[in-house]
Amino acid sequence: MSDIAVVGGGLAGSLLACVLAQRGERVVLYERRPDPRGGAAERGRSINLALSERGLSALRGVGLDKQVLADALPMRGRMIHPVAGELDFQPYSADGERAINSISRGALNNVLLDAADPAVEIRFEHRLSALDPVSGELTFETPDGEIRARADVILGADGAGSAVRGQLVAHGVTTETLDFLDYGYKELTIPPREGEFALDPGALHIWPRGRSMMIALPNPDRSFTCTLFWPTSGTSAFASLSSPAAIERFFAEHYPDVPPLAPGLVDDYQHNPVGLLGTVRCAPWQYGRVCLVGDAAHAIVPFYGQGANCAFEDVVVLGRCLDRAGGDWARALPLFESSRRADTEAIAQMALANFVEMRDKVASPLFRLGKRVEHALERLAPGHYVSRYELVSFSTTPYDRVRRRVRAQHRALAAAGLGLSAAIAGGIVKARRKP
Ligand code: FAD
């Protein structure tokens, strides 16, 4: 049995600690925040997120899927809100039945912490400030001052701004690149209307506007959390709305169905922070006894709804690597990095590509036609043609294999003379923008 330190008690860290404790390891989980159970949600992070098959499959492994799904709201498709005209519902799957699930990030984290506790020793208000990757010595800032600890294995699950990654970089072991988008995000709320959902809770709502985009996911309290994506600088950007009147004018012009549903819109806009979005790439993730998992290793932009799903899948893959290495961490950690890297690079690229699709293409008639063609192909050739969305969200096919399979499908369609279908399904044909 090894002494394992998991740094970061967010989604990946708390699941990882739980899985390792179930395997009989001695685990200490260090988290910089106070115990979030019973506390208020953190502002500025997404309040809810879409959980799909990869995340669910990881939760199934520790017997938590049903408990988490009991508080989730299934979303079976996208509901497109044009500036004017009818709403357009686009199912995610060919049979219209498959759903991604809107869940509260805080509630999910609490379920995982409860499941880890007490098999895992959880030390809250411990912020990692230094790490010696060779000796395994860790230094934490706590309310009682600086505390030192030691571990045989150190797993950095401390998110996109990872201090563990920072320490590997500082020791000259790892190099990193952080590619920030010139877009940020701000959360806004659509409260319940007369006690009911103000919009259809069975869909993920999208307002595609080209330069900006808004999405909304339902919450169990019948509110919706909207996320507005917009550039962080320039003339048409978050900072360009500096007065209540300017905010009202902007929403009335671009999102006209929202203000009547969101009485706190101006207040939310003025007080909620703008979060940053980016892709983290670093190499190696693993050095000796230290390894990064989840966002700490490979944070991605949120446009495929896969960051947490991918982080949970990391935990499953790490468990498999430990099995293959017969429980030998020195062999398991390099195996984890080599077997997982191509997949995380694939989803990072697909997530960036999906931003263009969501903020622009989903509104175009050509895109809608493409989706209908895809779903028809899926029904005509079940198991032979499977859409990228289906493979990413409703399967656990490794992301890199998804990318290769989708390319092969498009080549096969083109070779079969279905050039237009292939082009549409592959998103090769550029959506025509409305004037
Ligand atoms: P985190 O959840 O960030 O957890 C890291 C933990 O480490 C935190 O608890 C933090 O307090 C702790 N920590 C940090 N530094 C230290 C330190 N020095 N010492 C100790 N502890 C530390 N993903 C989806 O799958 N579906 C979605 O729909 C989705 N929507 C998103 C929407 C937005 C706007 C954003 C920004 C992200 C979204 N994501 C989504 C991505 C998802 O939130 C992340 O991928 C996921 O939270 C990663 O989990 P993690 O445990 O690796 O990191």
From TrEMBL:
InterPro entries: FAD-bd, FAD/NAD-bd_sf, Kynurenine_monooxygenase. It holds the Pfam family FAD_binding_3. The chain crosses the membrane at residues 412-429. GO terms for molecular function: FAD binding; kynurenine 3-monooxygenase activity. It is an enzyme of class 1 (oxidoreductase). GO terms for biological process: anthranilate metabolic process; kynurenine metabolic process; L-tryptophan catabolic process; NAD+ biosynthetic process; quinolinate biosynthetic process. Keywords: FAD, Flavoprotein, Membrane, Monooxygenase, NADP, Oxidoreductase, Pyridine nucleotide biosynthesis, Transmembrane, Transmembrane helix. Its cofactor is FAD. The keyword Flavoprotein applies. SUPFAM superfamilies: FAD/NAD(P)-binding domain (SSF51905). Residues 3-330 form the FAD-binding domain. Catalyzes the hydroxylation of L-kynurenine (L-Kyn) to form 3-hydroxy-L-kynurenine (L-3OHKyn). Required for synthesis of quinolinic acid. PANTHER family: KYNURENINE 3-MONOOXYGENASE. Belongs to the aromatic-ring hydroxylase family. KMO subfamily. This is Kynurenine 3-monooxygenase. It comes from Prauserella flavalba.
